[in-house]
Structure formats: structure tokens, C-alpha cells
Write a structure and sequence with these properties.
This protein has about 350 residues and is α+β, with helices and mostly antiparallel strands. The protein has two domains: about 150 residues, no CATH class; about 170 residues, C8orf32 fold, CATH 3.10.620.30. It has six helices and 20 strands.
């Protein structure tokens, strides 16, 4: 059953605003969190060869939550049909647009304002409560690229030997990744998160390293998930088409979800030419329980069936736009840079 967040049928070059209700929640430890604010603009000029083809497009659609306020949304284009839909398994939301076979030039512009704050989750309880594994079964199961048995479980149990709590296990896995994996700049995009391969090569990008953390955590009974999103630029404005980023979270009973980003530790070490993690101690400590204010969260989950459902295979993850032409995938790969889009950022 298709779940409609809010549906709009929009004629050629008509814009609409989508109101977002923001809940302002304040937690201990957030009082001194840093903040950033900006405007993000997606521009699509779908480069579909030939005529007489039906084109469908899905775009990641961030929403407001405790850590980010999404506002001032404007969508324009010459699509024949569009809507904002939520898929039923992970609750992720996508902007969907469709062009009829008679349309020759297919364009869409999607912009939104965002105010994002640094997430600080370090005031851990001294005593860890029990939790229902059945309740968190969606965050303990394997995915196509993230098995949790065999070699993965063997390594996970070795890393966490002697650790009895979720916090202790997660910290041991985080430290192992920081000390043993590395950032491979030659990998395209954010990587595919093929955990078994990565435990051999040990080199990857953010989706790779985060997926290793998630799979190893699950293998020893710690609920975990990848968070897929995009970074605001360091500069005041510019092209952020390839600024996607993935980090991870694990569940601490009686406390909630805790963010970790070992991939950003290894990125820092690569960029600053730091050889050993002990020489980046402050960065290592920072990214266990904190993620900075420059990232915009899209969604979580792997092996994605979109809403409306795509005709192609399940998506490994949904961090990049995805398109189909006459029912066949138009993306040359998961990143879809070939379909014709740009993402721009302006600091506000």
C-alpha cells in the first residue's frame, strides 16, 4: 500500500510550498551544540536519449527531527505527476516525479532551507539496562551486503571478547575500525558497503566503513544502523553534488541511539597525513558519541524498495537520486551522476 506523506499534482512550471512542523526538543548535553544553516538546491535536467519514454525519478527527501529543521521547501518542474511518499519498511521519504512519454525536456528544481545542530551523546548512564531484541530486530538483521554470521561474526566476537555491554562492544568495534581500516580515496562515491570484502581489503569510503561498524555490531547483538545524508560545504557556497556522507548509530539501552563516525576519523588522518590514531586522539574521542553540525540526514536502511516501487532491483541504499526510463534503471550505478543533476549550497 502506498503511503502518501503529502501528494501534489503539479502542472508545468508550477511551484508549491510544503509546510514542515518543527518540534523543538532540548536534551541535556545539547546546550552548547554548534549550529549551521543554509539552503540546498537540487537541479535536474534529465538527459534521456530519444523520445516517447516514460521517466520516473526518486530524490532523497530530508525531514525535520530533533537535530535538523527543514523548511522553506519549493519544488518546480514540468513533470506530469509528483508526490512526497514514505516507504513502509524504514519509513524513509522520497520526492517522486514522473514525466509522460510526450515530454521532451524533463526538468525539476527542488530547494529547501536547513538548520542543523551538532549531535552530542556522551552523558552515558553508569548502568546499562536490558532491552528487547525482538523490538529491535530490524536493527539486528543481516542485509545483502552486510552479513552478520560466518567470518563477520567471528571477527566481531574476537574484537568484543570480554565486553558485556552494548557500550563496551560498540566502543571496542569503533576502536578496532579506527586502528585497522583506512580511507581509500580511489573508491567511487561513498562506496558500496560490501562488508565481507572490506574486512579483507580494510580500505573504503564512508558507507564502507560505517557498514563495517554496523555489521560487526549486529553480529554481537548490538542494534545498529547506517545514517545516509549529505554534508554542507565548508565554503559559504558552491557545488555539493558529490558531498554525500554516511555515518552510523548504535542503540544504548535506557539511553537511545548514539552516533559514531570512524570514517571521518580516517578521513581526517588521510587529509592531515596523520599516521597513527593516537596522534589524532581528540578526533577519535570526538566522533564516538558526536557528529558535527554540517551534515544533513536523509534516511537509514539497506536493500530499499522505494515508494512508489521501482521496477529495478532493491537499492543498496538511498543516498543518491534514482531514475528509471520505461521501467528500466537509468542510473549507471548507485550514484546516478549520469542522469543529469547538480546540488548547490549557500550558507545562510
Amino acid at each position: 500500500m502506498r503511503e502518501e506523506v503529502k501528494m501534489y499534482n503539479v502542472k508545468k512550471q508550477v511551484s508549491f510550498m510544503i509546510p514542515i512542523i518543527t518540534l523543538f526538543l532540548f536534551f541535556v548535553g545539547f546546550a552548547f551544540a554548534k549550529e549551521r544553516e543554509g539552503k540546498v538546491t537540487f537541479q535536474f535536467d534529465l538527459e534521456v536519449p530519444g523520445e516517447g519514454k516514460i521517466v520516473r525519478l526518486w530524490v532523497p527527501y530530508p525531514v525535520s527531527d530533533t537535530n535538523q529543521d527543514i523548511k522553506d521547501i519549493v519544488i518546480t518542474g514540468n513533470f506530469s505527476n509528483s508526490g512526497i511518499y514514505r516507504e513502509g519498511v524504514n519509513g524513509n521519504i522520497a520526492l517522486y516525479a514522473e514525466w509522460s512519454a510526450s515530454t521532451k525536456k524533463r526538468v525539476l528544481t527542488y530547494e529547501f532551507g536547513v538548520k542543523r545542530k551538532e549531535v552530542i551523546r556522551k552523558d552515558f548512564p553508569k548502568r546499562e539496562l536490558s532491552f528487547s531484541k525482538e523490538e529491535f530486530q530490524d536493527y539486528l538483521k543481516a542485509t545483502n551486503n552486510g552479513p552478520i554470521t560466518g567470518k563477520v561474526k567471528e571477527i566481531g566476537e574476537k574484537i568484543t571478547k570480554g565486553k558485556e555491554t552494548n557500550l563496551g562492544k560498540a566502543k571496542a568495534i569503533y576502536d578496532w575500525i579506527v586502528n585497522n581500516m583506512y580511507r581509500d580515496p580511489n573508491i567511487k562515491g561513498c562506496g558500496l558497503g560490501d562488508v565481507e570484502r572490506l574486512l579483507v581489503s580494510l580500505g573504503g569510503k564512508c558507507a564502507d566503513i560505517s557498514s563495517v561498524f554496523v555489521a560487526l555490531s549486529k553480529s554481537v547483538g548490538v542494534p545498529a544502523r547506517e545514517i545516509f545524508g549529505i554534508r554542507m560545504l565548508k565554503e559559504e557556497k558552491g557545488d555539493m553534488t558529490k558531498s554525500q556522507h554516511c555515518w552510523a548509530e548504535f542503540y544504548l539501552p535506557g539511553y537511545g541511539w548514539v552516533p559514531v563516525d570512524p570514517s571521518d576519523v580516517r578521513k581526517f588522518m588521510l587529509e592531515k597525513k596523520v599516521k597513527y590514531p593516537m596522534d589524532a586522539k581528540n578526533v577519535v574521542e570526538y566522533y564516538f558519541g558526536v557528529v558535527d553540525e554540517s551534515r544533513i540526514a536523509y534516511q537509514t536502511g539497506r536493500d530499499i524498495v522505494l515508494n512508489p516501487p521501482q521496477r529495478g532491483n532493491k537499492l543498496n541504499y538511498f543516498m543518491y537520486p534514482y531514475a528509471e526510463v520505461n521501467g528500466k534503471p537509468f542510473n549507471e550505478d548507485i550514484y546516478g551522476f549520469n542522469i543529469g543533476y547538480k546540488i548547490n549550497f549557500v550558507e545562510q
